[in-house]
Amino acid sequence: FEKHDNCVSCGYAFREGDTSFSGYGDQEEPLYVCGTCTPAKLKETARRTYYMARHYKVPEPTAVLWRYMDFTKYASLLSTKSLYFPGAACFDDVFEGAKGLAEHKHKWDAHYLDFFRRAVRSAPRLAGVEITEDAIETNAQKLLRDIEKSGNRDRERTFISCWHESKYESEAMWRLYSTSMSYAVVIQTTVAASYDALGKNPRIAIGRVEYVDFETSFADINGAFWRKRKSFEHEREVRLLVSDRRQSAPGLALPCDIATLVLSVVVSPK
């Protein structure tokens, strides 16, 4: 998570399609390096990875985050020593995880069908074996149906803790995200503190939400949970997101070092 974009040895910035190498050096230290550094640095290669840029932007480690909540949720945080990640399917926003507007579905279907047709045509096959246009179309249509089913399943297995990024507390956020302002608190943390408090868990992605106009664009397959409509822009949301295909619960409670997470607590102005 920390070194995703750069070789830890020479600092090379990976580009789409590069191969990155994970493994161990002479002193058994873990390394993540580029192809140029691999022969000299890696004693043992554990994994080769086709590099792809993240589908979200990671905030600076010092970015200040706020979580507004009712006092009962704060008490639960303290007593369970865990941070609760609600399932995406439980969110009020019906667009959570959506790729775009249903009325524009034919546009992104056409986009992905074209991509899948080219992918099927260019797939390696035995010498002399040809694939018919009918077979190409059948396979492309199947892939399109598969990603649509996958998108629906993703809502059931994606869990998100939502935070507001700002240097200061917000009156508007007090009103939006506490059921009763008289019994609400907000906890303050930073990106680095939340990362440390959750044990530097590599399964948890931390990133900024991008606000898009679904009238003119749609979210890509892997970026749907990092995109929201422009009408939510005031939230300035940073998400801690984890996917777990084994879970069917409405949420996950992940162990958390509360003393590391909570840098300050502010009680409601009411």
Structural Rg: 22 Å
Count of individual helical segments: 7
Strand order of the largest sheet: 8-11-6-4-7-13
Distance between the termini: 39 Å
Classification by helices and strands: alpha+beta
Shape type: globular
Report on the biggest sheet: 6 strands, antiparallel
Number of strands: 13
Low confidence ranges: none
SSE sequence, one letter per element: EEHEEHEHHEHEHEEEEEHE
What's the pLDDT, averaged over the residues? 91
Beta-strand percentage range: 25-35%
Assign a percent range to the helix content.
25-40%
Task: Outline the structure in words.
This protein has 270 residues and is an alpha+beta fold. Helix content is 27%, strand content 26%. It contains seven helices and 13 strands. The strands form four sheets. It has a six-stranded antiparallel sheet. Strands 2-1-3 form a three-stranded antiparallel sheet, with no helix packed on it. It is globular.
